[in-house]
Amino acid sequence: MAHSNMSRNDWLRLGTVFLVIVGSLALLFIPMRPLKDIVPLGLDLQGGVRLVLEAQDVSGMTAAQKQDTLDRVITILKNRVDQYGMANAEIKRMGTDRVLVNIPGSKNPTEARTLIGQTAMLEFHKVIQAGTSPNSDLVPASSSQEVLYNRDGIPYIVETKPLLTGAALSDARVRTSQSMQTAGQLYIAMTFNQEGAQQFVEALRKLKGDDPNTPQNEGDLLAVVLDNVIYSAPRITQSIKDAAAKGWRNVQNTTTISGKFTKEEATRIAIVLRAGALPVAVKVVEENTVGPTLGNDSIRRGMMTIVIGFILIVLYMPVYYRLLGLVADAALILNMLIMFASLVIFHATLTLPGIAGIILTIGMTVDANVIVFERIKEERRTGKSPLAAVRAGFEKSLSTLLDANITTLLTALILLLVGTGPVKGFAITLGIGVVGSLYCALVASRLLLEKAGFAEHVPVRVATEQ
Questions:
Q1: Residue 345 belongs to a domain with what CATH number?
Q2: 98 and 216 belong to one structural domain
Q3: Who contacts 45 (Cβ-Cβ below 8 Å, separation ≥6)?
Q4: Are residues 150 and 220 in the same domain?
Q5: Is 178 in the same domain as 158?
Q6: CATH number where 241 lies
Q7: Within a domain: 279
Q8: C-alpha angle with apex 298: 112 to 301, nearest 5 degrees?
Q9: Judgement on whether residues 313 and 185 belong to the same structural domain of the protein
């Protein structure tokens, strides 16, 4: 800095500028990665999966009930895709009984459809009789019984009324078996909440006791049923019943779902169990895989527009404002760093309208500096010293800057709250740009003008007394 008389506030401003620059560079340029790996791209830029789901069995509901049901479906689906790592998914209402799901970058439509469309109705049923092969011919003895099948097609006769449902769960995690017989196999460990564990204790008491005369396949089997498919039917031993008799805490973590799971399947099941069952079944009525060709073209054109606009303004400002133009250029570069670093920090998705917001930000950043520069020139014409003109220029332009930018920021917030995916993309970059341009003008530009000697080069003729 040209001036050594730095106050505490000046050092604070310098420190924040230094941290912003270093932090932004660390986020963006130290790990040299493609743009799509630094800032997540939206469906319109990188393609992905687009699903339209239709809620089933809602025709008899009132309008309020339909809305509540669809809101619950959307909340549960958002939890699922977030936990599964399908980042930046857009899930929103579409009409009165449909939900639109956009998953940018998804390479597996089948996987997405399975995760989204699974109802995840978990139930625990008492087994009356278990088949030994898919050819077993089992017939329920009464209307209170039904036949369900496991994933290998083997039938089971179970009590129709479940002993327990998935509402009793508080957690579900994928674990790897350590036993000699099943070493390395994946299973899902379930944890009951207190109420659920107490219900599980009651359910265990309803199972028949161990009887040496009871055939093995008609013993204390408890079927774990997910969406009407039996995933496992563990045998409830007397030791587990004894543990249950001592209190609910002893069985809170004892139940598992076993099977020949792939890692992806086990992870998906655990996630849908944690997120909870959908209140109604949903059907995928439309599925599109959006290709990336248009996205690549859009990215190239959008980024070209940003680069051309950026270069033209960087060249123009020093021509018109001379050395002060370099201050505006520095503020513009800093705001671009802030923009992309903020997108990384907030895990925001860059969409085509978002690129438009970045282009608008370039103009807004320079505009803020132009307002300040013109005010400084006016103060300089009155005969004030360069430093006094800079300080007066910032003070007198502050209200104008705040009025213009705060109203724009409020508009961006409204768009973010009520807008859909593309509009939100524009609102995000616009909002970041507004905050960044204010910071660059009021902190970074002022620091350069006051402490780096740029104020001495205000391109204006000072009025002389006659």
A1: 1.20.1640.10
A2: no
A3: 36, 104, 295, 298, 299, 350, 351, 352
A4: yes
A5: yes
A6: 3.30.1360.200
A7: no
A8: 160
A9: no
User: What is the span of the domain harbouring residue 200?
Assistant: 122-259
Helix 293-321 × helix 352-381 angle, to 10°? 10
Give the confidence band of 464 by pLDDT, cuts at 50, 70, 90: low
Tell if the pTM clears 0.70, that is, is over it. Answer: no
Cα gap 313→106, rounded to integer Å: 38
CA–CA gap between residue 377 and residue 320 (Å, rounded): 13
- 110 and 225 in a common domain: no
pLDDT, tens digit (0-9, with 9 covering 90-100), for 354-410? 888 888 888 888 888 888 888 888 888 888 888 888 889 889 888 888 988 899 999
Q: 3-state DSSP call for residue 450?
A: helix
pLDDT for res 309: 86
What is the distance between the terminal CA atoms of the chain, rounded to a whole angstrom?
A: 37
How many domains does the chain fold into?
3
Residue located via tokens 């009165």: 96
The verdict on 322 and 231 lying in the same domain is no
What are 204-249's pLDDT values in tens digits? 877 754 444 444 333 478 888 888 889 888 877 777 777 778 888 8
Q: Which residues contact 189 (CB under 8 A, 6 or more apart)?
A: 172, 173, 174, 175, 253, 255, 256
pLDDT tens column, 427-462: 888 999 999 999 998 888 888 888 777 777 776 665
CA dihedral 270, 274, 275, 276 (to 10 degrees): 100
For residue 332, give the nearest of 373, 367, 372 by alpha carbon: 367
Q: Do 251 and 335 lie in a common domain?
A: no
For residues 439 and 338, is the Cβ–Cβ distance under 8 A?
yes
Is the pLDDT at 463 greater than 70? The verdict is: no
